[in-house]
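dumping the sequnces here before i forget
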Amino acid sequence: MDETRKKEPLIRVEKRKERPAKQVRLLRLASVLLAIVAGGLFILCIGYNPFSVYATIVSGAFRSSMAFQATIKLMVPLLIPALGLTLAFKMRFWNIGAEGQIIMGAVFATFFALFCWDFPHWLLMICMFLAGMLGGALWGIIPAFFKAKFGTNETLFTLMLNYIALYLISFLRDGPWQDPNSSGFPKIARFGENAQLDKLFGVHVGWLIGLVLVVIVYIYLKYTKQGYEISVVGESRATAQYAGMNYKKIVLRTMAFSGAICGIAGMVQASGSDLTLTTSVAGGVGFTAIIVAWLAQLNPVGILVVSLLFSVLEKGSTVMQSSYGLSAYSADVLQGIILFFVLGCEFFVRYRFVTRKKGGKA
Amino acid sequence: MRYQNRKKREVTQLALDKVENAIELRGITKTFGSVVANDHIDLDVRRGEILALLGENGSGKTTLMNMISGIYHPDEGSIHVNGREVVINSPMDAKKLGIGMIHQHFKLVDVFSAMDNVVIGAEGKRIKPRELKEKILELTKKFGLEVDPEKKIYNMSVSEKQTVEILKVLYRNADILILDEPTAVLTPQETQKLFAILRRMKEQGSAIIIITHKLNEVMEISDRVTILRKGKSIDTVNTAETNEKQLTELMVGRPVTLEIDRPKCENVHTRLKVVDLSVKKADGTMALKDLSFEIKAGEILGVAGIAGSGQKELCEAIAGLVPVETGAVLHNKENIIGKTPKQINNLGISLGFVPEDRLGMGLVASMGMVDNMLLKSYDKAKGIFVDRKPAKKLAEELVERLEIMTPNVETPVRLLSGGNVQKVLLGREIESEPSVLITAYPVRGLDINSSYTIYDLLNEQKKKGVAVMFIGEDLDVLLEISDRIMVLCHGEVTGIVDAAVTTKEELGLMMTGSKREGVKADG
Amino acid sequence: MNFFTNFFVAAVLAGTPLLFGILGEIINEKSGHLNLGVEGMMSIGACAGFMMGYKTDNLLLALIAAFAAGMLGALIYAVLTVTFMADQNVTGLTLTIFGIGLSNFFGDFVREKSGATSLKLPSGILDSLGKVEIPLLSDIPVLGKLFFNYNIFVYLGIVAAILCGIYLHRTKAGLNIRAVGENPAAADAAGLPVTRLKYINLMLGGGICGIGGAYCSMIICNGVWISNCVNGLGWIAVALVIFATWNPNKAIFAALVFGAFSVLKYYVPKSVIRIPDSIFDMVPFFMTILVLIITSIRSSKENSQPQSCGVNYFREER
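..and the predicted 3d for all of it:
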């Protein structure tokens, strides 16, 4: 019995009064700073000067108008899917299929680019835009249907659809849509000028679409009935039904919108940036967008800020690759570290560590 | 190993024979955020006695006991077990000291059998299932328990689950037993059985603490009573030298008549008529079988029954949330089966359903009062946008009228106290001027003052001519507030009685009475 | 007959990395944590195993490195979800992105340092990665080829599956961790060290995933370092846990079936049906979806996800 005469543990966890919003914001900011420090330590460990590396990243993203344009070009495919995902995440629907939804948007849009290239430019653009939405929405509705009907796990479902979409592109590339002028090399033809997205200030108008979507999503979530429904469903399905909401309809509708927005990103990427359809049209942004949405606490304005930061990180890391020979994958690592820290800091909003009191009893 | 432990304990017990207190608490203080749950509490329990810990909901009884069982850690104060000061950091430490606690919400693994539940966390090597089963059967014989060691928990009734919890404690040779509101979920007959077991344990020298707020049980089972009020220890008295009236005053802090008003029913006429209603659960079994009853305008119909007898499904069926197998629900002679929840709500059938966690269904925990006011009416405004202005006004009115304590109407309701949450929920339902008001467990977890506010609100509705259905668990309350009581057992009505001329025991029999169909099958 | 044996052998080889992933995730989920970071832990393990093999030319050290790396990945997850009570879904996803990124980053890093255009495992370790012939057994006609003619990982995987099965269902420790995963509050009240058990089992699962990763980088890629070598297998493994109904022994079957789907394209004679390869590539993913749907339609109480999965535990929660 003597072993129970020990002291109280050195550190234990206790619930605290919830911190006010202002403190929470500071806390998150601090955690991002800590993450940057941790990233610096990582860089130090592999034998580089963190200050010069970080400086290279920032200057790499902003050093010239061309660099900045490239940064914006990287931002667009992060921003738009993150906005789409926000709708799903608000509903606590774990849509990690942005990747697939982006691809399907691009595939549907590409159909018009390849086969209706002789449409008037404005009509072609509208068709491609709507087709992109349709493709993404389709890929969003499928898992939503099974989730609503049978409670099928949407996380894995949406994920598997990513791979199916990916292989759909290789199927199209190797067969039906293969470029007839590529002399057998499996690739899809470059879009004609008519099917390319217009430019504004040197970057395709995707950035403008993104900004408009920020406003739309913000208003949609905050002020509309449908946005209210999403919040309630996200909190509890039972409550939503109790309130007389049609759960299935809301899930299907929201996922259609979520997928459609991601689909827009696919269309923008294919016709504005890649100017063709390749298997790397999404290239992992669907996953990074999840981090973006989460870091921004599902706030559309926050998403704008975070996606800009992330694109700086990505653009900068490509510069780092060319000047230091450090792999551009470092951007993924840093993004991961940042989110790890922010996830950890959420703890301090509701809990605190209590250390053993000095000289206390026991 | 276990045998050695027991031997060791016997030795210590002999050495400490002069110390008669099994547990002594001195100056225990515990705060949660800004709430002081326990404020310098002293408490003694002797071996071979049953101590009742009496107090209202929220007076800090459970918190105090959780510190003995290692769930919480006190901010200040000391705990002595068998005369020695100890630090209890975890349930593991408590277990080693021979302390066992039976929590109000059972801590059992649903998919495990009774014996697996008993053996987890117990000392020693893995025991072969057959030996284990024999050991358990031996224990059950010794204390007169009834339980099948191989039955899975999810197939068990509430009282069977409680038996498993007791078995767990006995298996570990715990001689200090804490029970948190053990009778809340039992019928009067099951309560008697439990008390018999406790008396037997007491005779064998165990120290037992029973947390309760029911005075008649205190009088019946305990040797001494310690009364807590608002986190402070008020007094400790010998049960033989006190009475219910004195205990009430100590518990509430002022003389109160614990009688609930029952205004006379006026203008009574049938509002809601349920005919042969049958509902299936998700797993295909029947939740409600051929239920027929009516709720009259201007009355309160109480619904009694063991937890899980079909109360939830009844609420959900009337509100249109679950599909109905057969039968009809007539609201002013109009069948509402097949209507959507929204249509039913628009007819004025208002469901104030409060599941165990209170925030589960009627309210959105992370939203403020304003957005919660909108829950059923957000769709009424024209256009695609939500109109928050009337909701804000309503929220502010409710805060004033029902004295809801909240920093402001935008504060997430999960940060409010239980009583205030309940007022928000009921307030909203009442504001919609319902024709039928269904409330389930509206006073669960509330202190006496808040409970009476809720009773008054319900009576007020009754006087206005609303048909009120009150699903409750405390039979005393049900008997006092209801005009008629319907008793459910395994989804069937076993009786609809006049509350004024019925006793608790009669209700208890009806709650378990429907044995003619055979108890719930095992598998 | 020969055709069938070849197909079976190929299916086993393709299923083995999945098996490790499934086992790791089963242990994670049994301790109450839906860890979506399997892909990440496998990636980290793939990189660590490969690099250790590359530097030391020692298979055992490579395996230890892979296991340890997987454990470290799981440690990050455990700290965040167990101690800091962060959302399990998001943490797992982040671990995946971080793990893939870290693995690719280090691959590039080491290659740059070495100055070579590609990294190739030394010949010594490649030899030990070859088929392990078991005396007598391997010589049995047909059966010998079917069951006793594999690389070391395959045997390791089978043994691991059997051990996991015994651990979870036949030992006291297994009973304890299942109790934790089903109802941590009950386990805690019964006096089990919930936090410690969660850490141990999460890391154990992570280590097993790490070995699966090493298979991807060392066997699938034929000893040459390739970025993204895990390529979605970790994700399929997470899904297959459902197919295996959280049972390590059934995991062997699940891995085999899905291994078969993924090599199907090489074994359907082109003369019979001509289906493009990319359609075949979709099959495992498509089948996974089917499994998800079917299991969600018929749900059973006992062969299902541990109840507390996805929800973090805090003792003082009121």
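Chain C has one domain: 2-297.
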